[in-house]
Design brief:
Elements (H helix, E strand, L loop, with lengths): L11 H17 L25 E5 L5 E3 L2 E2 L2 H9 L5 E5 L5 H14 L6 E4 L2
Parallel strand pairs: 1-4, 4-5
Antiparallel strand pairs: 1-2, 2-3
Length: 122
């Protein structure tokens, strides 16, 4: 009887592990919504990551977006929402600081006592 040809290693277990890792990363990934218009975020030096919040977007051209509201309708929507959760502001790096400060003053006026405003880049 002739000697048997050695059988190669099976790669099925390695394929199984790769698919399990793929499924794990797909299930644990956090999917974020796209921004309503292009933003160039400022550099951030914060060590902490922001959690999931309501996000107010401000473009370099001072366009406002919050959920489905755009422009001046953003302020009405923010007043109607109350103030239980913090509002995160994502502003373009080219937005003048004076305009951002004006928006912060307006937000502070409509925010209930004890509300938090969180300004982040990107």
């Amino acid at each position: 009887m002739p000697p048997r040809k050695p059988r190669g290693e099976s790669i099925i277990p390695m394929i199984n592990v790769v698919f399990l890792l793929l499924i794990f990363f797909l299930l644990t990934a956090q999917i974020t919504q796209p921004t309503p218009f292009p933003l160039t975020p400022p550099d951030s030096r914060s060590e902490t990551a922001a959690g999931a919040r309501d996000v107010l977007y401000i473009s370099a051209g001072n366009e406002l977006a919050w959920n489905e509201a755009r422009g001046a309708a953003v302020w009405t929507a923010l007043v109607a929402r109350g103030g239980a959760d913090p509002v995160e502001i994502r502003a373009d790096a080219a937005l003048p600081a004076a305009i951002l400060a004006g928006h912060l003053k307006r937000l502070r006026k409509i925010a209930p006592a004890g509300a938090h405003l969180v300004v982040t880049g990107g």
